[in-house]
Amino acid sequence: MVVAAELRRLLLNANLDALIKALAEAGFKVVGPRIKEGAIVYDEIRTHRDLPVGWTDIQRPGSYRLQKRDDDAVFGFAVGPHSWKKYLHPPTLRLWSAERGGDGQVTVCAEDGEVPRLALLGVRACELAAIGIQDKVLTGGATIDPHYARRRSNLFIIAVNCMVAGGTCFCVSMNTGPEVRGGYDLALTELLDESGHAFLIESGSEAGTEILRRIPTEVARDQQINAAADVVAKTAEQMGRAMETAGIKDLLYANLEHERWDDVAKRCLGCTNCTMVCPTCFCTTVEDHLDLSGNRAERVRQWDSCFTLDFTHLHGGSIRTSLKSRYRQWMTHKLASWIDQFGSSGCVGCGRCITWCPVGIDITEEVAAIRASDPRSKSTSSA
Amino acid sequence: MVSSARLLSDPMTPRFLEVRRVIHETTDTVTLQLIDPHAHGFKPGQFNMLYLFGGGEVAISISGEPANASRLEHTIRAVGSVTKPLAAIRRGAMVGVRGPFGSAWPLEEAARRGSDLLLIAGGIGLAPLRPVIYEVHGNRSRYGRMSLLYGARNPADLLYAKEVVRWQCPPTDVRTIVDHGDLQWRGRIGVLTDLLSEVNFDPAKTIALMCGPEVMMRFAERELSRRGMAAENIFISLERNMKCAVGFCGHCMIGGSFICKDGPIFHYSDIAPFFGIREL
Question: Are residues A252 and A207 in the same domain?
């Protein structure tokens, strides 16, 4: 079968630039991981030299450090503080502007111009799952967010199978990784040993096959295909963290007054970091601006966080005044009410909220603590 | 992935409507009458997002006649940074409107089942129930008996004072109560549950519709339940901070529900597990 042969090929590391060039020639702006300000973040990529070749990240609760690897791996790290949501659901976005004429009539101009066609290079399995979740939130209901939908429909996704598990990853227990399973145009698995440095490249869409045809690749041998399967198996084995998800919705709904919320509130700073780095957190607020003439107005939408006091402001004050109530809102939404709202967990197990929490609060540990002292299980175990 | 037809209308962009009349209801509350020539109608209980040019946006229930949707009415209490200037707006000014949004009171179900209606309103909570009264009075034969129990802090805070007197006409029973009377007040003084304990209704064929402060609704629900009304026949209207009104901004969540799209009108039985938990 001609098509099948093209679905899975071998891309030599020396030809990685050809892939980046082919995407640019197809009209895509390529964005991917690169080192900036001491972290691996997502930004524009022009050549493979922009990628964090030979670097890895050491992650622990409340800690993130870059470290040199002893090889030239291109994707030899986990995930950094950025997620792809900054491109699909921008942190700041003007929704519309309006002008008031001399007769008092108002003309509104919606923000519906062209958006760049992006190729996301290096999307991990957990991140694909996160994009799928945001698709559901922002385009899966009766009303569609046109701004998200426009950016999403233009997308080309190059996924990467993880070759290392980060220190805070728990995707295996969330059933989202480390192996990518669809939802991409192309998928890469990095193969790096004494015999050479290459990528098993697989196409998952017509657009992916189209790009694959334009770049120099070789036939993928069985040995290489097996080696690629070993990469994700090894990563899964390395994973040092897990979240027990069985019955988690009922567990959290039944424990809204659990004393653990008081405990975590003593540690939580309410800094909003966890919500900013989370690839599925979607909350926003709006700001209305007016220029000095008083006749030109605009509305800007920006990421917001359920950890701010202002978030639930209603006449007379806020609903969630305590940090306890705000942490509870975030965690029960992410892990429980998300299931009621969108049919899946809001957590993909990427570990960002653990790494980037300045005091190292670990969501898996908080769930385990509530589970360990769930009054419902006590009553059943004593029976 | 996304059909272009669904993309055509941007739910986040307001249309601008002219203020035709400003009715001063009480010292801090006005009703804005907007002209909406392209009105698509609304259902009693739904709300709009009202935007003051450059000055912010706020969720306000629609309080006018459903049968006359081109005359769009909103009753606004001046309590916040948006509602204060909005309540001070003049005739002829333009107001941005997005909507209508949200769920409606179960009037079709009430008509189908021939239910009696028990309306329980506290303060400005009467505003989203006023369209129910218009709808029932405009189609009297479709509905059973209707009782309105209305409580306010002071006699001067009673909304739609003249209309409330006109609504009192069998088979509609209207009772009002205030927390504190004044020299002219000859009516009841007390809390809303006082009225509830003395009104007659058949719990098996009555639907209760409540809107008011949450503490009032908690006590009212307790009394209704004590009188034998099932939780699925009790409907409440809830309020939270809202930015988008279509389920994207996350501000209005309570438990698993978004008040903007799953509410603001809820079956009490759906919200009961979360209602009454502090700071949820």
Answer: no
Separation in Å, CA B141 to CA B104, B136, B171: 21, 8, 11
Q: Does the interface ipTM go beyond 0.85?
A: yes
**Which of B51, B54, B250 is opposite residue A294, by nearest beta carbon?**
B54
Range of the domain at A211: 5-92+112-236
Phi/psi at B107 (nearest 5 deg)? -75, -35
A216 in the same domain as A146: yes
In a domain, A85, yes or no: yes
Whether CATH 3.40.50.80 fits B107-237: yes
Mutation to test the B interface, candidates A291, A296, A312, most B Cβ within 10 Å: A312
Question: Is residue A255 located within the same domain as residue A212?
Answer: no
Calpha distance A155→A117 (Å, rounded): 6
Q: Which residues of A touch B255 (CB under 8 A)?
A: 253, 337
| Same domain for A252 and A231 | no
Pairs across A and B, CB distance < 8 A: 138
Chain A residue at shortest CA distance from B6 = A144
Domain spanning B4-101: which CATH class is it, in words? Answer: mainly beta
Q: How many CA atoms lie within 13 A of B214 on its CB side?
A: 15
Q: A199 and A279, same structural domain?
A: no
Residue A246, number of CB atoms within 10 A of its CB: 7
pLDDT of B269 above 90: yes
Q: Is residue A107, in this structure, part of any structural domain at all?
A: no
Choose among B53, B246, B256: nearest Cβ to A100: B53
Burial class (CB in 10 A: 0-12, 13-18, 19+), B47: buried
Residues A267 and A346 in one domain: yes
Minimum CA–CA partner of B84 in chain A: A315
Summarize pLDDT for A255-280 with one digit per residue, the tens: 999 999 999 999 999 999 999 999 99
The reply to whether A298 falls in a domain is no
Cβ neighbourhood burial of A357 (10 Å; 0-12, 13-18, 19+) = buried
Name the residue of chain A whose CA is nearest to B243's CA: A285
Domain range list for chain B = 4-101, 107-237
A47 burial via Cβ count (<10 Å: 0-12, 13-18, 19+): exposed
| A101 is a domain residue | no
pLDDT in tens, A302-356: 999 999 999 999 987 999 999 999 999 999 999 999 999 999 999 999 999 999 9
Question: A interface mutation test: which of B20, B214, B241 has the most A CBs within 10 A?
Answer: B241
Q: Which residues of A touch B241 (CB under 8 A)?
A: 311-314, 319
Contact A302/B at CB under 8 A: no
Question: Min CA distance, B215 vs chain A (Å)?
Answer: 13
Contact A297 B83 (CB under 8 A): no
